[in-house]
Task: structure prediction
Amino acid sequence: MIKTIIVTHHTLADYLIETAEVIVGQSDNLTGVSISKNGDIEAVHRRLVELIKGFQKEGKKVLILTDMFGGTPSNISLALYEPDKVEIVSGVNLPIVLKLAGGIKDESKSLKEIAAEITEYGRKNIFTAAEFLDL
Result:
């Protein structure tokens, strides 16, 4: 199984998870980590390492979602990348969180494949009004 950690600026991670749970119900697959404006970056790094080690002891792989590439959450997370153990996707959105809230059902896929699918899923769920209304 895969555990997902959402790492964002301010409290976006918590609100994404809370919103997803309002829609699909409680999820044990999602964990939020927020970085405040004047937060202790080392403390966030330690928290992420602690979460990853705990999930790995349970035999889980870890997918980290960050709010935007190049930001502090992404930069901290990228340092924790481990092929086939910890994967990072930047640009989290609510459709991605909803898809992951229920957990990944196909255990045969690699973490890299799942990350690629989630990334594509997030992209496919971004529309302009003109595209949707065919104007």
User: Anything to note?
Assistant: Strands lie at 2-9, 30-35, 61-66, 86-90. The two ends are 43 Å apart (CA to CA).
